[in-house]
Amino acid sequence: MRFRPCIDIHNGKVKQIVGGSLRDSGDEARENYISSQGAEYFAQLYKEDGLKGGHVILLNPPSSDYFGATKRQALAALEAYPGGLQIGGGITAENAEEYLEAGASHVIVTSYVFLDGEVRLDRMEKLKNTVGRERAVIDLSCRKKDGDYYIVTNRWQTFTQVRLTREIMDEIADYCDEFLVHGVDVEGQAAGVDEELARLLSAHKKRRVTYAGGIGSPEDLMRFEKLTEGKVDFTIGSALDLFGGAIPYQEVKKYR
Question: Which PANTHER family match (predicted)?
C-alpha cells in the first residue's frame, strides 16, 4: 500500500474541492482549500520526498476560459518532477503524447474511453497503441445509483451505463498499467472511506489500483488498510495538512 500524492488544479490554482460539486457551467466547485503555492511547489516537494506516481488532475474542460491557466500549472508540475507524476483531465489518444513528452510518467483517461456512456474498447486499443499499455491509467471513478456503482465521466458529472464490477475491471485491465478510482460520493468530504467500494477494489488482482475519497483521519487510513489488506494504494487530498486538513503529511509520506 502506497501513498499517491495529488495536485488538483481548477481555474488555474491548486485546490481541493468537494468532488460531487464540480460543474463546468460557470467553472464552479465547492472549495475546501486554495493554495497560494503553484503546482510546481508540490511537485518539487513530492520529488524531494521520493513519492512517485502522484496524480496531476486538470479540473477544467478545454472549453473553459481557465483551461489555459490550468494547463500551464499542470505542465509546470511535470517539468518540476519529470517521470514522477501522472496526469489526467481531457486526455485522449490524440493529445496524450504531448503530456508524456512534457514529463508525465502515465496519462489518465476516463471520458475518452467511456464515450456516450459505454465502454469503448476500440478507443482503449487506440490509446494502448499510441502510448503503450504500461503508460496508461484508466480512471474508473464512480458514484452509486440504485444500489450499484456506476463509472462517471466529464469530471464526475455524467453517469455512464457501465457498472463498476470485478468483471469489468478484469476486462479493461488488458489496456492499462493501473486503475485510479475516486469514490465521488465521499470525495473531498473527509468523512470516512467508502468501505464497500474499498472492498470491491481490493478484490481485483491484475493491476495496481489507487483509491481516492473520504480518508479524513489516521483512523480512517488504518481502517482502509485493514479493509483492503494493504493491497490498494491511496490518495489523501483535503484531509492532508498540506491542504488545510488534519492528517500530517510527514506521517503519510512514509507509505512509499
Answer: 1-(5-PHOSPHORIBOSYL)-5-[(5-PHOSPHORIBOSYLAMINO)METHYLIDENEAMINO] IMIDAZOLE-4-CARBOXAMIDE ISOMERASE
Phi and psi angles of residue 191, each rounded to the nearest 5 degrees, phi first: -110, 15
Q: In the structure, how many helices (H) and strands (E) does the chain have?
A: 8, 13
Predicted TM-score (pTM) of the model is 0.92
In 59-177, the DSSP E strands lie at 85-88, 106-109, 136-139, 142-145, 148-153, 158-163
User: H or E segment at 74?
Assistant: helix 67-80
* Rounded distance between C-alpha atoms, residue 96 and residue 47, angstroms: 22
Question: CA 196: distance to chain centroid?
Answer: 19
Residues 220 and 192 sit within 8 Å (Cβ to Cβ)? yes
> Smallest Cα–Cα separation from 198: which of 188, 184, 212?
212
Furthest C-alpha separation in the chain: 44
Domain ranges across the chain = 6-252
CATH architecture of residue range(s) 6-252: Alpha-Beta Barrel (3.20)
Give pLDDT tens digits for 185-216: 876 556 689 999 999 999 999 999 999 988 99
Kind of pairing between the strands at 85-88 and 106-109: parallel
3-state secondary structure of 180: strand
